[in-house]
Write a structure and sequence with these properties.
By secondary structure, the protein is an alpha/beta fold. It has 17 helices and 13 strands. It has 4 domains: 124 residues, NusB-like (N-utilizing Substance Protein B Homolog, Chain A), CATH 1.10.940; 35 residues, no CATH class; 57 residues, Alpha-Beta Plaits; 204 residues, 3-Layer(aba) Sandwich (Rossmann fold).
Length: 443
């Protein structure tokens, strides 16, 4: 059987040093490994936890690595990271076992010298766990260490939302997300799906906001779930479900989804339209269209058509074609850090300006594809206001033929109804951070 800790450090190397996506490399590796379900669960927890708390872990390691990180091999650094994570944030593995596993891992994969370094660092940490590794009166630095975010990102949230909401965002982005299913109304009712999941041994309950959502607190592999295989359910976060719910969908509409992959919102639209009308799902990545088609087939959807398209380029043949046009634009992804914690470390301030330019070019083109009286939905999975409310202001200033139609889903502690009619969703255990705006074309 493969060494689970070696798997974790290899995955960290791919994500932190090679730019891989955590969910993709983890899923690929776990599907190939011979680890049992319990060990797979522990690998997942340590891998994501180490990514999530990297800033705080590195702050601790910096205290003990006198020569600094640059003088230590990346593999050794990652062995130390997963070990500090287990000691500081987990209580599943005894401390002596964590140290012994780390020493053996280094001895077998690096050198005797590396194993001695790791042994010394971890034993010093165990002796000094009461040390305050963040002695400061600075609020930002305190938040950086407490929630393990880089300083520029903490400053951004506090500046844009204030201290109270900003800290709620930092806390929410560190929550371990529940798995959420969307029930496919074309095949089964919510009540029947919930009963079947419970009968299969899942700890399942109704969703947080959406009527078609089911939350899974504990259960087996999702892809082998018979309800999933039969197309009765699909995996989707409740924040993403709210996009289709906001579109005022009725039977027979012509819907254009410009940035569709992997197709969760497009298939939800079809379900809400009872598989009538037409949905044209576009994406710039041709290989991702296969995923949309596969999901649509599994769900029994027949009114969805896929085509490769660059949404930043105007397409004359789409002009005035859509009763509804959805632009779930590429974004910084700050709202989904719960599920992709590497975003904390792979994004930087300079990238934000480039993303905003792309978003605005898509908004400009999409504005021409909506029929008069039709609706344009703008959504992002980020909490950066420059990509959200500032973009909405820019759009209204430049496209006076549109007005915002306010969205309301009810009173929930994590929903912020903005003065411009848009909605910001603060992340918590049940939902990702998200932003949604609905425009109506009035002339």
């Amino acid at each position: 059987m493969e060494n689970s800790r070696k798997i974790i450090v290899d995955l960290l190397e791919q994500v932190l040093n090679e730019g891989a996506y955590s969910n993709i490399v983890l899923g690929s590796k776990l599907n190939k490994t011979d680890l049992n379900d319990k060990d797979k669960s522990l690998v997942t927890e340590i891998f994501y936890g180490t990514l999530k708390y990297r800033y705080s872990i590195d702050k601790i390691l910096n205290y003990y690595l006198r020569k600094g990180f640059d003088q230590v091999e990346p593999l050794v650094i990652n062995i130390l990271r997963i070990s500090i994570y287990q000691i500081k944030y987990l209580d599943k593995v005894p401390e002596f076992a964590v140290v012994n596993e780390a020493v053996e891992l280094a001895k077998n994969n690096v050198s005797i010298g590396a194993s001695k370094l790791i042994n010394g660092v971890l034993r010093n940490y165990l002796r000094g766990k009461d040390i305050n590794y963040c002695i400061t009166n600075n609020k930002i630095e305190t938040l950086c260490y407490k929630y393990s975010f880089s300083k520029w990102m903490v400053k951004l949230f506090i500046r844009q939302y204030g201290e109270e909401v900003g800290e709620r965002i930092l806390s929410g982005l560190n929550e371990v997300p529940n798995i959420t299913f969307r029930v496919n109304a074309l095949k089964v009712t919510n009540e029947m799906a919930l009963k079947e999941l419970i009968a299969l041994g899942y700890n399942a309950s109704k969703g947080y906001i959406c009527s078609e959502a089911i939350t899974i607190l504990k259960g087996k592999n999702i892809e082998k779930n018979p309800l999933f295989v039969e197309g009765k359910i699909t995996v989707q976060d409740e924040s993403a479900m709210l996009v289709a719910k906001a579109m005022d969908l009725t039977s027979g509409l012509m819907v254009i989804d410009l940035c569709s992959a992997p197709g969760g919102k497009a298939t939800h639209i079809s379900e809400l339209m009872n598989n009538t009308g037409r949905i044209d799902a576009y994406d710039i990545h041709k290989h991702k269209l296969l995923l949309i088609k596969s999901n649509a087939k599994r769900l029994g959807i027949t009114n969805l058509y896929c085509k490769e398209l660059d949404a930043t380029i105007f397409h004359k043949d789409l002009e005035n074609m859509g009763d509804r046009v959805l632009i779930d634009v590429p974004c910084s992804g700050f709202g989904i850090i719960r599920k992709k914690p590497e975003i904390k470390w792979t994004k930087n301030k300079n990238q934000l300006k480039e993303i905003i330019e792309i978003q605005r070019s898509i908004m400009q083109n999409a504005s021409k594809y909506v029929k008069v009286g039709g609706k344009l939905l703008y959504s992002t999975c980020t909490l950066n206001k420059e990509e959200n409310v500032v973009n909405i202001r820019w759009f209204l200033d430049n496209f006076p033929e549109y007005k915002v139609e306010p969205i309301y889903f009810g009173k929930y502690e994590n929903l912020i109804y903005n003065t411009d009619g848009s909605i910001t969703i603060i992340p918590n255990q049940s939902m990702d951070g998200f932003f949604i705006t609905k425009f109506t074309k009035i002339r």
